[in-house]
Amino acid sequence: MRPILLGAILLALPGIGGCTQPRGTYQAAAVSFDRAGVCFSIPDSEESRRSTPEVTSLTVSRLADDGWVPVLQWDSPGGGTRLRPGECLYRARVEIHPRDGLPDETLRPGARYGVDITGEIANPAGRGDPTVLRRYEADFCLVEHAASMRIELVPRTRGELDWSVCETPAESGHSAAKR
Fold first, then answer.
1. Rounded to 5 degrees, what angle do the CA atoms 143, 83, 163 make?
2. How far apart, in whole angstroms, are the C-alpha atoms of residue 178 and residue 162?
3. pTM of the prediction?
4. Phi, psi of 98 (to 5 degrees)
């Protein structure tokens, strides 16, 4: 009898909320390229227009032979920076810098990157904590095209990153990678 009861409890725990994230925690980041450089932003959504996120950090990682390597880091001074849809965090303007101990790395064509923007919004439920976590993520590469640069966002196909959208892959042997 005890093994059956223990099994039932273990099966029920994830459904109680012990291992789940609130809906909307993870969303797509917006990444684009313009005259000022690579623009990291949040999506233009009903939620982001209703409740402007307070962004606390941004991390850019590069896919290497041994996995994801953080190469650029920005932490908001004073605990949070309001970022509206369409506003950009540019490397040069907000002092996105190489992580301590890493060489200065310019984002380059052909390399495979992921960005993670962390922030908070006012709790839309109106009960519980006053704010809720938001993580905006995207995988991308820079592609040279006719003497200019463009950003290609990397889609997922059956749960795997589809790097074939990048015209010049940085490292051979990485047809797909989970993050």
1. 25
2. 10
3. 0.75
4. -60, 145
Burial of 50 (0-12, 13-18, 19+ CB in 10 A): exposed
Question: Is residue 98 in a domain?
Answer: yes
- Residue-wise pLDDT for 88-124, tens only, equals 887 655 555 544 544 556 788 889 999 999 999 988 8
- Reported as a single tens digit per residue, the pLDDT across 45-80 is 888 888 999 999 999 999 999 999 888 888 887 778
Q: What is the DSSP letter of 60?
A: E
Residue 87 lies in a domain: yes
Q: For residue 45, give its domain range.
A: 22-165
Q: Count structural domains, the chain.
A: 1
Residue 151 lies in a domain: yes
d(C-alpha 149, C-alpha 143), whole Å: 6
Element (H, E) at 40: strand 37-41
**Proportion of the chain in helix, strand, coil states, percent, rounded to 5:** 15, 40, 40
